[in-house]
Amino acid sequence: MSTLKNALRGSELISGTDALPYLTDASSAVPEKPLAVVLAESPEDVATALAWANEHRVPVVARGAGTGVSGGAVSITDGLTISMERMANIISVRPADRLAVVQPGVVVDDLNRAAAAHGLMYAPDPASSATATIGGTIATNAGGLRCLRHGVTADNVLALQVALAGGRLLRTGAQSRKNVAGYDLTRLFVGSEGTLGVVTEATVRLRPAPSGDNVTFQVSFSSNADAGKAVAAVMASAVTPEILELVDRTTAKLIEAYTPSGLETKASATLIGQIISESALRQARELRNMFEQCGGFGFKSSADDSLLGARRNAFAALSAHGMGVAWLASDAAVPPSRLHELLDFIRNIQERHSRQISVVAHAGDGNIHAAVSADSTKPGDVAEAENIVELIAIHAVRLDGTVTGEHGTGSLKRHLLVHALDTVSYDVHRSIKQALDPLGILNPGRGI
Question: Is the pLDDT of residue 366 over 50?
């Protein structure tokens, strides 16, 4: 370790109890004891650490703020964790180009505040945006509530600087609005969960903040399937809300017990959304008609964000009531037109297994979060909950979807990839991994 310490220029190398805050993420994955943690200060030091690790065949885990829920940033035995939190400079905000250049440790909300000063926004808004870093959200291709209209992280990243396994610094993409020179290496690294390289700088797209009237709404349904069909009707129409979320009865009860929000707890499901547009009032009326044709009732609207509070409180309510997350939760995704089929399948599982399952969803994206309750003191109970999560993921694939929509596979969902990728896809993935990380030092045991 002394050779690495001497080679670093400004970055700190820590171990023992000093390293403890950097070993976990927000999942239930159990951290292992690493050799050390690098508190990186520059791209060059990240590259130096990777070159050292590659030479000595030491596994490397890159870490942002540790808000991931799939075990992708948990420390590895005798490995090196590289924390990017100190690389937190917003290098530039360029309104005329609608972009910003940032270091990976910049917090999502901090970037949004900087963009807002110019009437712009950074669109991806994961639930952990107050603490999640740009680098971490790039690693997992994070989403959020307003990604329905503005896209996920991959749709908002123009260029990257990436430290490769051997210690080289690679630049991908361009800062121009159009670029078809060479392969799209930028998208290759977005969502790769630190298995192909470590992001050391990002050029991200900024978009004009939505303007016009603001209408938020809630509407209830007597069945989850009816709510899913209403989502399909909306997505087939000319109306595209900023936000369109679903909360099922189980979740609504937990939210209301946690902090009363006015949700209809007798309804099977509630859709919660937002429209911001010069024609928002007209669009809201169109949506109300669509919802009522699909069995919706109790439609209510507001000219502020108050009706969105219930959805934003969902995670805290689940945690407060001990509902499982990460290894006991699915973030499978399906085409919006098939959401009602996935919701029906989950309801049938819930009845068949007499198991409490909380469902919230980025409904317009067809991306569900189904948290399965389990008694952690009973290994058999936990195993059954894990099996239910896998059944949901398998069914999502059968519905032309995927096993993970935005959280990534990390270490906890890696086994689900067999349901999502065929042999040819596996071979191509492994070829790419071999080309960029021939010794397999980057986040081993995660991803492919």
Answer: yes
Q: Judging by DSSP bridges, how do beta strands 36-39 and 80-83 pair with one another?
A: parallel
Q: Packing angle between helix 339-353 and helix 379-398, nearest 10 degrees? A: 150
Structure tokens at 194: 């630190």
**Measured CA distances, 53 to 161, 354, 355, 443 (Å):** 19, 49, 45, 12
Cα–Cα distance, 329 to 37 (Å, whole number): 29
pLDDT-derived band at 233, boundaries 50, 70, 90: very high
Closest alpha carbon to 230 in 126, 364, 109: 364
Q: Residue 156: which residues within 8 A CB-CB, separation 6 or more? A: 122, 123, 124, 150, 204, 205, 207
pLDDT band at 328 (very low <50, low <70, confident <90, very high): low
Q: What is the pLDDT of residues 393-424, one digit of tens each?
A: 999 999 999 999 999 999 989 999 999 999 99
Question: Exposed, middle or buried, 23 (CB in 10 Å: 0-12/13-18/19+)?
Answer: buried
User: Alpha-carbon distance 432 to 410, whole Å?
Assistant: 18
- Domains identified in the chain and CATH numbers: 2-83 (3.30.43.10), 90-208 (3.30.465.10)
What predicted TM-score, i.e. pTM, was given to this entire model? 0.93
The sheet carrying 12-14 orders its strands as: 12-14, 36-39, 80-83, 60-63
Pair 221, 294: CB distance under 8 Å? yes
Residues 6 or more apart in contact with residue 364 via CB below 8 angstroms: 148, 231, 234, 235, 240, 241, 243, 244, 273, 336
